[in-house]
Amino acid sequence: MESAKPHPRPLDGLRxxxxxxxxxxxxxxxxxxxxxxxxxxxxxxDEGDPIRRWRVVQEGTSLWWYSxxxxxxxxxxxxxxxxxxxxxxxxxxxxxxFVENFRPGTMEKWAxxxxxxxxxxxxxxxxxxxxxxxTGPYAPRPGFAxxxxxxxxxxxxNGFPGEPSVRPNxxxxxTLAGIHAALGILLAYIGRDRITKGVGxxxxxxxxxxxxxxxxxxxxxxxxxxxxxxxSGSTLTGIVPSNTYPTQDGKTIIIGAxxxxxxxxxxxxxxxxxxxxxxxxxxxxxxxxxxxxxDGMIGRWTATLSQTEVLARLEAAGVAAGPIYSVEDMMIxxxxxxxGLFEEVQIPSGTLKIPAIIPRLADTPGRTDxxxxxxxxxxxxIYAGMLEMSPSEIEALKSRGII
Length: 403
What we know:
The structure is a single chain. The protein is of the alpha/beta class. Helix content is 36%, strand content 15%. It contains 17 helices and 13 strands.
């Protein structure tokens, strides 16, 4: 019986060259590849992308690699050598999108900058990711996510008052930059068809700006009222109640009952419906003024019940609340399962679950076709097929260390 033909994907037919390393550039390309783009990942021939060896490594390969490099055709190429740069030029000239996250100026030094493709590939969407962007006095600085999360304002508001800022145990700056880059690419792609009549453009993404884009009202509040948003621990400044609370069995839950109607239902659950009409608590502005005492009352109530019991009561009353999950909790939760958030792939040692990627498209969904490949696994396919090199040419490039 003939197997069902896979669903078409929205980016089928697009070709992407990814010359990034570590996380921001590669994650942007991962998103594009999940939704159908042919992604050709170019790596140095000696050791490849460092993420191949980061975090939890089994049999010489990072488990993260199988997720981040999914659906990518992995080729090797030494851009430090003139012939390697010439081959890169040929690859980019046969592609729709180029993603790079080298330090600004590097690609121009190698004659691989945007201007170098204006004549040979005018439709190219040239995507650049760096710490501080391609312009401005800080452009030449190295910009890792950790530094840019501070510079972009996030670290200042993340933590507890009077204590050093806290870093989440994730490189959120890199991931956010990758998401912004993918968004920019798609906007440029739409614009190429609708506005620029087939001419591509440069997408310039700075990691610190991707963080800055999350900062909600901090700018207008400071400029209009002189208010500097400060760290507030587990609360959310100006919105009450929205906090974490203890339970009888030593666990913690989150309650976000900050609309008036939801707060009233919470008060009823706590056994004091009249509290919702108390002038100290009736409106959010008043609740903000009495946040500490209100959080204390809620915490004393939640501490009388187990996590399971208090969450069941809150859910039944229509109050927004939930647990704080570890990955172990996620893997067994029925909602995660129902939403198909784990995909199983084959790796050399057996099977591995990796996260599905969102957004979810009803008619043209994304999918994982294969996990991250070994270094240079697609050299012959790309160089012989796409660039029409002969076996002897490919062998000569290998012998000289160019691939």
